[in-house]
Amino acid sequence: MRKYQIAVIGLGQLGRRCVQALRHDPALAPAGVVRRNATADDSLGDLPMVEHIRELPEVDAALICVPVEHVLGTARELMQQRIPLVECARLHGDAFVAQHAEMQRMARLYKARAVVGAGCDPGILSLFRAQFGLLLPHGHTRSSLHTGASLHHTLAAERVPGVRKALATELKTQDGTAQRYVYVELEPGTDPVMVENAISHDPLYLDEQTLVFAVPSIAALEEDNRGVLLERHAAAGEPSHAALLLEARFNEVELAARMMLAACRALPLLRSGAYSLFDLPPSMLWGESGNVAEKPWI
Ligand SMILES: NC(=O)c1ccc[n+]([C@@H]2O[C@H](COP(=O)([O-])OP(=O)(O)OC[C@H]3O[C@@H](n4cnc5c(N)ncnc54)[C@H](OP(=O)(O)O)[C@@H]3O)[C@@H](O)[C@H]2O)c1
To answer: Which of 88, 264, 273, 291 is the most exposed place for a label (fewest CB within 10 A)?
Structure first.
């Protein structure tokens, strides 16, 4: 089966994640990257880098990964060429509604197709918030961001000679066993095996399987792994006292890229217009396999 050829516009954090995800997708493939300055990028091998999308031989759709203030202009150019697009600019509330309305106006004018706000937030987290609101219509939602790691036990690891900084997270394996991952940033010349032995034999860590990983920067790790706690509580007067809770750890940019690819799968099934994720039936996000996609989740 021919893969749907996707251009990525802007090679920043999101653009890079999109290229990576496209490379492993069964139905989509990267057609190339459109950049302001089309210098080759060794990390992307022989993927075409161009300054204008017209230079790419075959494009079925484009992912807009440029700064928020350039998204509308980029979308207009694509729509004028009838290239279907997906974007996920970080806009919320009134700003999102205004951008969606303008995208809709342009999509009708140029008879083009677009999915807007298809990232992590806005994107999949917006859908979770809405589902919680649907189930508990009278109540309040609280959303708090945190790093994906529990800082528990970190100080003990930092006392090991040669460890500059450490961060510990606790995870459950598929069979329910608890595992502790300890990430360590080492002083130059420190032997990682010696550090691993010292940490895994510390009595504080003996209660659970402990895996130690040396990383170049703990700060970068904390930046990369975000968490969110989304809570919806029924209003005080509601007899059920129901509460819904989503506790998630993830890389925001990676989830945004995944959602953009899912939206891409929906594009061939859409008529012209600008759709938000709220406008799309969930099965569309599975593309051609949408007709069988519900079975594993129902
Ligand atoms: N909804 C979500 O969950 C979510 C998550 C992450 C990002 N986003 C959105 O995705 C977009 C990209 O975010 P990002 O984090 O990837 O940003 P970034 O790392 O700053 O990358 C943006 C890229 O856009 C290109 N670009 C084009 N015109 C530019 C200009 N005038 N100034 C600077 N860069 C320009 C550049 O690539 P070249 O050098 O290759 O031209 C740049 O690397 C933003 O609109 C952001 O709001 C949304």
So the answer is: 291
CB 267 within 8 A of CB 86: yes
pLDDT value at residue 151: 52
For residue 169, the model assigns a pLDDT of 76
Side chain identity at residue 64, one-letter code: I
Q: Please, what are the domains in the chain?
A: 4-124+252-297 (3.40.50.720), 154-223 (3.30.360.10)
- To which residue do tokens 């799309």 refer? 280
β-pairing, 178-186 with 209-214? parallel
Cβ of residue 73 lying under 6 Å from some atom of ligand 1: no
∠ Cα 122 266 129 (to 5°): 30
| Encoded tokens for 159 | 């006392």
Q: Is the CB of 10 under 6 A from ligand 1?
A: yes
Alpha-carbon distance of 116 to 269, in angstroms, equals: 15
CA of 73 to the centre of ligand 1 (A): 14
State if residue 117 touches ligand 1 by the CB under 6 angstroms criterion: no
Q: How far apart are CA 169 and CA 152, in angstroms?
A: 8
For residue 213, the one-letter residue type is F
pLDDT score for 146: 64
Which of 49-63, 183-197, 226-240 has the weakest average pLDDT? 226-240
Q: What is the pTM of this model?
A: 0.82
